[in-house]
Amino acid sequence: MMASSSPFAFANVRRFIAFRAFFNARFYYPVFTILFLDYGLTIEQFSLLNTVWAFTIVLAEVPSGALADLIGRKCLLVTTSLLMMMEMAVLAFVPLGNGSLIFSAFLLNRILSGLAEALASGADEAMAYDTLVAYGDPEDWPRVLDIQMRVQNLAYIVTMTLGAMVYAPATVNSVLHSMGLQLTLEQQVTMRFPVLLTLGLGFLALLTTLGMKDPLPPTRHEPEQGAWQRIVHVSQLTVAAGGWIMQTPMALAIILFGMGFDHVLRMLITMTSQYYRLIGLPEASFGLIGSGIALVGLAVPRLARAMVEHFSPRSNFFWLGGLALFSLWGITLFIPGWGVVPVVLVFVAMMLTSFFTSHYLNMITASHQRATVLSFKGLAFNAAYGTVGMLYAGLIAGLRRSVRATEPLWEGVQVENEAFRRSMHWFPWYLLAVMICIYLFCRLVRRRFPARDGETGWKMNTIPKEEENHERTV
After folding, report:
1. Residue 291 within any structural domain of the chain
2. pLDDT at residue 159 is higher than 70
3. Considering the domain boundaries, does residue 269 fall inside one?
């Protein structure tokens, strides 16, 4: 089959872009923390539930990728969409007033959400990329990522702005009264609106994935194989992909460097609301800031695409490291008002990390294990994120004791704020130490394993030609 001149001529590619937008741009993100609290949970319960979410992803990440390579990507993506609808339905319809029931509902929500994240990770990328390998041109992948990230950021602008608006009862009631409706809704009603809207996105994600088609047949297995044989087969795929990563220096370097940047930047992103308060920004501006950052993000994919086309992976990761360190040190200054600028740079660095990791890893990974390898990437990212979360909790506890010892007359809020300020000074040095350790480790690995086909130092080609030609004929 002749390659199309445009990667967007393929339905799988278009549906991949739509799925990413429907699945990731959720209406409750701007009110994520206070949503839990307004349902009646405590901060401690909130932390516990998100720990469950992270561990669910870590446990399910790699097996889900192997399943995608075995039974096909579409099956997993349809399941992902169903899980998204289930996790939202649990919160949308759980009755209030019973603390144990609410906690159980949120626990189920976090488990379902973690499973959905794990199933989606790798399978959607592999679906779109394999479509280009089979019928188009894999070198068009940067163009696909460019458009995908732009569309997703446009979706973020809409969902973050609208989600914050429908959550606030004052805003909702003002709109209702302007329409001549004499209704007054309470917080316990309006707080479900972002959840219900996200449930609608889950339905759109389901429709999107139902229309996908696996471009390549899943790994063949005998029809008479039972459940145990298939489990063994999945395990073999997982071990094989893990072994390939460990023996392929370029793949290992991409995953480790991406993990190093991702877990630090993501940790900071989850704490932006507290940072905004300390630089004097009103809470009402948080949603607008998020939309503004999403607007800036529309230009980042084009920048990332130009960088991968004109610079080597080594140069791009060094540029990314410089940007990340600059933004982290900027945050430590806590500049009133203007302190939002380094936060924007953190988001830019996060998007560049996602783009570079996806682009370079897909280029050197064969189709039959692509979803599994991408799931290993997700596993590494989430394991590192969970680890730094635990380290940060210990750091905050230590800094809190230190502040109380030096400032015994301060109140609780002052102590918490000062501990938070001091904790930010650790992040640049932590990131620098992590990057140095990863760099030294990758040098040791490269000495042990020589460069393979498809990778030469930090300069890479696509997958080996003989394999690419084989896949195009499937």
Report:
1. yes
2. yes
3. yes
